[in-house]
Amino acid sequence: MSDMSNVETSNAGSASWTVVPEAVDSPVASALWRAYYTEVSDRYYLLHERRRTAPEELEREIAAETGDDLRPPTGALFVARYGGEPAGTAGVRLMGDLRGVCTAELKRVFLREDMRGKGGAALLLAAAEDAARALGAARIILDTRLDLVEARALYARHGYEESEPLTERMYAECWYAKKLAPRAG
């Protein structure tokens, strides 16, 4: 099993990215999770009900997703920082044997809107995929919504292919899977 504590870095202009493991209940992870949930929830309600998320709805949804499944030894959460500032997250959890293949699930992929387009999403995906490999997964899957077109485009650009439903969740509308090639060396 490879070390999941490696730091991924990339220079983008004068600032640089770092991606490191983070505790799911850290203040940084919690703040990014709140930003993620606020954005995707507001997008959903604006699209379907022409309103923003009510505070009690947001709190209920955040409380329902603790992130405990992203804790070691069967999961990992990563935080990307741009120029030292927390910018986004990606998590992975081992699902085990799913249809004959050791499978991990990609979760909580998010970059703050002001940090998008600077290369951080690719680094987060790479860290999550490396963690999935370290957990023994040969495939990584995810589900998302149809209206999250930017996320869907990101996954397609990085080799994820649409698949049949692989999870059952209330808001899941499309599913992606990617075969994980072993890392050389």
Give an overview in words.
With 185 residues, the protein is of the alpha+beta class. It has a single domain (8-179), classed as Gcn5-related N-acetyltransferase (GNAT) (Aminopeptidase, 3-Layer(aba) Sandwich), CATH 3.40.630.30. The protein is built from 4 helices and 8 strands; from the N terminus they run ββααβββαβαββ. It has helices at 27-49, 55-64, 120-134, 149-157, and strands at 8-12, 15-21, 75-82, 85-98, 101-111, 139-144, 161-163, 174-179. Strands 1-2-3-4-5-6-8-7 form an 8-stranded mixed sheet, with helices on both faces. The chain starts with 7 loop residues before the first strand and ends in a 6-residue tail after the last strand. The mean pLDDT is 88. Keywords: Acyltransferase, Transferase. Pfam families: Acetyltransf_1 (PF00583).
Indicate the topology:
Blueprint: E1 8-12, E2 15-21, H1 27-49, H2 55-64, E3 75-82, E4 85-98, E5 101-111, H3 120-134, E6 139-144, H4 149-157, E7 161-163, E8 174-179
Parallel strand pairs: 5-6
Antiparallel strand pairs: 1-2, 2-3, 3-4, 4-5, 6-8, 7-8
What keywords describe this structure?
Aminopeptidase; 185 residues; globular; alpha+beta
